[in-house]
Amino acid sequence: SLIVLMFLLITNYGDPFYGIAAGIALLLSITLHELGHSLVAIACGCRVRDITLMMLGGCATMLSMPKKAWQEFLMAAAGPAVSLVLASAGLWLPDHVPGLKGTLGAFLHYQVGWLNMALFVFNLLPAFPMDGGRILRAWMARKIGRIPATFVASRLGRVAAIIMGIVGFRNGWWGLMLIAVFLFRAAGREFEAVFQQEMRDTWSRLSSWTWPGGTAAPPPADAEPGGQVQISPPPYARGR
User: Fold this and answer.
1) Helix (H) and strand (E) counts for the chain?
2) Alpha-carbon distance 204 to 228, whole Å?
3) pTM of whole model > 0.90?
4) 34 belongs to the catalytic site
């Protein structure tokens, strides 16, 4: 559905070539932002199923999340870092490359710069499911644990969504209201997913524990040959 947003951008410009350039800049910026998350996640041993581009941004669907706080910190910070690099390059190049200023290329660079600056600032909001909320959760998890940290970050996400909804309603910004609804629901789902994953991990550890001198219970019928049950965690989505 991000393609629909591209066409809406095109209609905002009198020259269709400039509108197409702005739409391509948006598509590439969000794609590279999500690739930043995905490549760092893969480097940390996580499985990335796909990247979805939609009107509200992008979403990298991961079949597993990093267990260590510093890995989640790097994964969450990778997207904004890519956006910051693109923003700096887009805003700096037109004024320092001879013959570029005033051309379609300069317009494209400025679009990349300002779009990525907006992505950088918006995604660093310290609330789930934004990247800033994940960075905050990774920092708090080392002090109070993963589940309490997720609870705090998800509630901050819902507070931020309510504020966005109120601002959007008072000013008639229906797009902001739509984003607010999405963020409110996503923040709640994130906490439920993390809670269920932690409960499964805890139950798995308890079920494999035996009394001293006792014997472990036989594995269920769907267990793998090594006696370990193959559990497929639910997909976790992130990004905007």
Assistant:
1) 7, 3
2) 10
3) no
4) yes
